[in-house]
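User: Run a structure prediction on this.
Assistant: Running it now.
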Amino acid sequence: MMIEKKLEEINFLKSQVSALATDKDWDDAFLERVKVDFTYNSNKIEGLTLTYGQTIKLLKDFITPQNAATGELLDLINHQNVLDNVFKNYRSESFTEENIKALHKEHREANHQSYFIEAGISANIYSER
């Protein structure tokens, strides 16, 4: 299959990068900046209206800007949570179709819950139907 070949190539490249020991300078502060930057830019592509500074304040200090849409705030937090899982496991796991699907499912489910919360609907009520 085409995806298996791509994943094989990704894992090979990951092993080459790991062999260079480039992550020796990847302290917690650096990883946090990467996560914030990736979260901000990824959500900006989706139409995020918060500024970079507002995104940092939300993700680091949980300070929400006035008049910010609840859905946007939750999307940012959910995205950050998925990235936390990625960075927590990136050394120990290889890229597989199952891992990618699990991360996508986690992000998608969190976003669905965000929209229910924003609309004032309990996610438990929805899942029971």
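The radius of gyration is 17 Å.
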